Amino acid sequence: MNNVVRRCPSAVAGRVRVPGDKSITHRALLYSALADGQARVRNLLASADCLGTVACLRALGVDIEILPIPVDDPLSGPEAIVIGRGLFGLAEPHNILDVGNSGTALRVLPGALAGQPDMIAVLTGDDSIRSRPVDRIIKPLSLMGARIEARAGGRLAPLVVMGGALTGIEYQLPMASAQVKTAILTAGLLADGETVVVEPVVSRDHTEIMLGYLGAAIAVEPLGSGAPETAGRRITITSAPYGAQDIDIPADISSAAFFIAAGILAGEDSVTVVDVGLNPTRAGFLEALSMMGAEISVDSVRTLSGEVVGEVTATRTNLQGAEIGGSMIPRLIDELPLLALLATQAEGRTIVRDASELRVKETDRITLVAAELNRLGADITPTPDGFVIEGPTLLKGAVVRSHGDHRLAMMLGVAGLVAEGETVIEGGEAVDVSFPDFFDRLDLISLA
User: Fold this and answer.
1) Are 187 and 137 in contact (CB under 8 A)?
2) What is the pLDDT of residues 10-38, one digit of tens each?
3) pTM, whole model, 2 decimals?
4) Three-state secondary structure readout of 51-86
5) For the residues 272-292, what does the mean pLDDT come to?
6) 324 CB contacts (<8 Å, ≥6 apart)?
7) Which of 28, 78, 351, 387 has its CA 20 to 30 A from that of 215?
8) Which residues, other chains included, contact 371 with Cβ-Cβ below 8 Å and sequence gap of 6+?
9) By C-alpha distance, which of 52, 58, 8, 4 is closest to 26?
10) Phi, psi angles (nearest 5°) of residue 74
């Protein structure tokens, strides 16, 4: 499917709500499934990724009912009723578990399956998922006693998980990865003794927040005296039943970022995104914008089911180039394609480094972001671990491709608002993975 975006004739403006956070939705579904009792999960992200997790959990015997979106609030997400089966209550699936395009499901579900007694489960996904490394979770889970096999010498899906008794370990993460951390902590819920994960560089901490909110036996200690959003952490979890709780999911900051960028690049008065998750481990994008001189304000800050949320307002700004790297990267890894677009309109050079993880996302985002933005007239040089971007450059509409990557599709949609003429995005349906009605909501602010 092709999507056509035209340069905004005047300027974008208005208030917009974006769907629920993808990372938190996955966790809310999984940890409600492992809880005792019934949970209502509100503002669920009903994207292909998260509905894939719903399908997998249903195949594991979990009763999940998706309720319709309220008529009086059509831009909110649906609600789900999840009947928990307890820590060791998942049923052996009759068929292969297909996670679709969800890297979170592929890497986190094995942590829950490995500790189930008498369980055999096979997980696979689409072509993109079958090319993403799983050895990074197999190694620590195997140290806990998990029996997992995968193709390509244990590196790639499909993978086979054979459940059984697990024993807690202490494991230091070799890279900042919330998915690997979450797989280990999830297995730790089912393991004998303590499971300790040490992360020298902090990664997004939605798992720790949600398990703490639900009453699981988890403790988090900082390593050293650095800023809490960058200092490493020592996370300890022990197996203990916990009760289900209703969960409200904030709007996804990774989705909100596209509208924040639209306000900066093409704003009139301002663009405000409401009820946005402001978790410090995900706020690197806002920090990077501040480094580039963007005019951003945050208001109505409060806590929702353990997570910090608020309203983010962006105003059109002349940006300056900056150097982005180090401990900031894990906190904005999903927003880096969008940051590259913003850098094409900034004065001077922008350097993104330490982001080699981009090469093993849904696509090689380093190569493809550079190629597609250069097709529009940008000046981006890919490097082994990032980009060098010269700006500002005049963008001109062209035919570009999403390559099946939802974040590339959305980034190119925002680029179309500022590129001269008409931008045609081939494969625009890729947005269904995380933001099914993205182009409709983009129209709302560009026609405001």
Assistant:
1) no
2) 567 788 889 999 999 999 999 999 999 99
3) 0.89
4) HHHHHHHHHCCCEEEEECCCCCCCCCCCEEEEEEEC
5) 95
6) 288, 291, 332, 339, 350, 351, 352, 353
7) 78
8) none
9) 52
10) -65, -15
Query: What residue has token string 């970022």?
Result: 257
Task: Report the C-alpha gap between 399 and 419 in whole angstroms.
Answer: 12
Q: What is the pLDDT of residues 327-370, one digit of tens each?
A: 899 999 999 999 999 999 999 999 999 999 999 888 999 999 99
| C-alpha neighbours within 13 Å on the C-beta side of residue 380 | 30
| CA–CA dist 353, 267 (Å, integer) | 29
Q: What is the mean pLDDT of residues 177-199?
A: 97
Element (H, E) at 148: strand 147-150
Q: Mean pLDDT across the chain, nearest whole number?
A: 93
Q: How many residues does the chain have?
A: 448
Average pLDDT over residues 293-301: 95
Residue 334 among the catalytic residues: yes
Residue linked to tokens 């402001």: 278
How far, in Å, CA of 37 to CA of 167, rounded? 26
Q: CA–CA separation, 111 vs 183, rounded Å?
A: 5
Rounding to the nearest 10 degrees, give the CA dihedral for residues 320, 321, 323, 325: 90
User: Residues 248, 252, 275, 334: which is the catalytic one?
Assistant: 334
